[in-house]
Structures are given as structure tokens and as C-alpha cells.
Amino acid sequence: MAGVLQGWRQNRRDGTDITFSYIDDAGVVQSGLVEFSGNSPQADFLDINFDGSIDNGDWLDFADGLGGKYPSLSPAESYREGDLNGDLVTNFTDFRIFQTEYDFANGASSFQAMVDNLQAVPEPTTSLLLLVTAVGLAAGVRSK
User: Fold this and answer.
1) Torsion of Cα atoms, 88 then 91 then 93 then 98, to 10°
2) Burial classification of residue 50, based on how many CB atoms lie within 10 Å of its CB (0-12 exposed, 13-18 middle, 19 or more buried)
3) pTM (predicted TM-score)
4) What digits encode the pLDDT tens for the residues 118-132?
5) Could you tell me the residue range of the domain that residue 46 belongs to?
């Protein structure tokens, strides 16, 4: 074999199809279409947690791996840690890929909206915690 195809990465924004030629049983040259099919009908490049959707769960998994180095992992294993470009490191380059692909999959500015929603989750304030603690202490003192 003159050359071995090591692999290819689908360019989602490319509108052209990839074709190949082969000779059928009758000796006639035919043309075939290369199609990508993932692990499931819902497979998508950015579906890091493999749940069939591109959502904040993928972002949370990606963020957990941010800053990690994975020299002992395979590219597939490091992908699960957020290494989107296959260099066995999850860094700013991978972040930019995540951000771009998230917006591409979910619509313009959807990444920022998702991050804003995650940050808007209400957390107990210090005064509320102090109030609960004071009530608990007062109840404990009265019961003795």
C-alpha cells in the first residue's frame, strides 16, 4: 500500500463531501461517499460526557480537566478529560475550541449564557448561615 491514512477529523463547517474511488467486482470504477458515524446516533464532537447532548454537563466535565496533562493517556482517554485537540494537555487552546464548538452547536452566545446561568445559582449568604446557626444554638440551650 503506497500510503496509509492515519485518520481524519471531520470539519463540521466544511460543506463539501469526501469521496473515494474503488473498483467493483465487474472492474468498473465506482465513487463512494465517506460518512462519519459516531458511537450513537446523537454522537457529537463536544459531547464529552457522552450523554447525547451538548450542555452544561459537558462544560463541567471539561472544566474539571482544565490545566491537566495526560502523557500516559491515549488521545481518546485524554479527550474525556477535555483535551479537544489531541495534544494530551487541557489548556486555553482547548477552552477556545470548547467555547467555539458550544456556540456552534447551541447558537451564538449560548456558551456565555450557560456560564452566566451556572454563576447565577443562588448560594446561602453568610447572614442566613449565621441566623440558622443562632436559631440552632438557641434551641439547644433551651432544651437543656
Assistant:
1) 90
2) middle
3) 0.56
4) 887 555 555 556 556
5) 41-122
